[in-house]
Amino acid sequence: MKRVLVIEDDHRMRDLLVRQLSALSCEAFAVGTPSSALRAVDAHRPDVVVIDIGLPEMDGFALADLLRHTRIPMVASTGDAHPDLEERAREAGFTGLLRKPFRLRDLARELDRALPRD
Length: 118
Prior knowledge:
Elements: E1 2-7, H1 11-23, E2 26-31, H2 34-44, E3 48-52, H3 60-67, E4 74-78, H4 85-91, E5 96-99, H5 104-114
Parallel strand pairs: 1-2, 1-3, 3-4, 4-5
């Protein structure tokens, strides 16, 4: 079972992601702030992290920069429709970008890209 850490400040989206990940047979952990995310990475050692770009304290790009040394695959999540965001996410080290609202199959596709096959 893959362990996924969700970093999302909106509690409804955080809960939805945890439910969706459970439906995809993942063990999901969720936090709402970058500072709690840094602690959770050490505590839970996830296989992948899903990071909201629009976080408080620092944006998801800055958090990804802090997490890059862990070599844990990262998937970006955003409600922003800016067309250059996908390229910026790739340059920041994200394996993919989920645009909200997204479907379960979109989440599954991005996890497949991020996680090695067993």
